[in-house]
Design a protein that fits this description.
By secondary structure, the protein is mainly α. It is built from seven helices and no strands.
Length: about 150
Amino acid sequence: MKARLVRLAGSGLGLGYLPVAPGTWGSAGGLLIWWLTLPMGRGLQALLLILAAVPAALACGACARESGREDPSFVVLDEVLGMYMALLFLSPSPAWVAAAFLLFRLLDILKPWPVSLMEKRFTGGAAILLDDLLAGAITGFILITLQILITVI
């Protein structure tokens, strides 16, 4: 029973088992959760992300150990939280949300430095989760900077 619950969590409530592009489905799940939690306000959303990080890393690590793979494709909880991080302080307009989704997926797939550094410095669930959280933070930083620049110009 416990293993099933861990797999359910690690797979983003089953999104990781969808046949095509599980990481994209996980990112869509993160977007949905962000949208549903918008009324909570940014502070509580940030707290929710912080509180979810350690259990998510543990679930990702447990799924990886159970499957015998370093970062199994069905584990998308990292994409859920990474996407949530990308959107955390962003304006909730459709254009910015779409830009965040596309940029996050690009960074998650390509894993440029320093995103790739997370997999080299950490192991297990921490490595699985931290590269996506960093990709989300970079996405958010780039887009918030653009929002500010557009406002100023």
